[in-house]
UniProtKB/TrEMBL annotation:
It is found in: Nucleus. This is Chromatin accessibility complex protein 1. GO terms for molecular function: DNA binding; nucleotidyltransferase activity; protein heterodimerization activity. It comes from Oppiella nova. GO terms for cellular component: CHRAC.
Length: 146
């Protein structure tokens, strides 16, 4: 009795011996474990995510699934932000604060982070902005008095 099965790994059916299937499945499982281990190394700590979620006064209880989903979503978001920043970086494969701040300032979908990651400015530039602002508001104030 031959232990053979037909598997559809490609467009045409292939007859594979049962022992080959076990080898293929074992290899695939080992690759998945290896990639899962790599993913866990980059994962956010669930206890920290849970602590942040519980810091909201509106939250009474949090399911483990919600914590895991929030951590995974945050990881994806961070990966997207870092990827966009590296794509626009002028310093090669290094990521600097100015790269993150530039992406936040130029991408509409990141606008909610502008208070958290503002673009840096020199004191001279800040003084110039304050002076211009004061000039504009003084002239507006005079116009209203007349």
């Amino acid at each position: 009795m031959c232990m053979c099965r037909a598997y559809y790994f490609s467009a045409r059916p292939t007859v594979v011996h049962y022992s080959q299937v076990n080898t293929i499945l074992l290899k695939t499982e080992m690759e998945e474990r290896s990639s899962a281990h790599k993913r866990k190394a980059c994962a956010l700590p669930l206890t920290r995510v849970k602590t942040i979620m519980r810091s909201s006064p509106d939250v009474s209880s949090i399911s483990p699934e919600a914590i895991a989903l929030t951590a995974h979503s945050a990881k994806l978001f961070i990966s997207q932000l870092v990827g966009d920043s590296l794509d626009e970086s002028h310093s090669g494969d290094q990521l600097e604060y100015k790269d993150l701040a530039h992406v936040v300032a130029t991408h509409k979908r990141m606008a909610f982070l502008q208070d958290i990651l503002p673009q840096k400015m020199t004191v001279r530039d800040f003084d110039r902005l304050v002076t211009e602002y004061e000039k504009q508001h003084k002239s507006v104030g005079r116009d209203h008095k007349h």
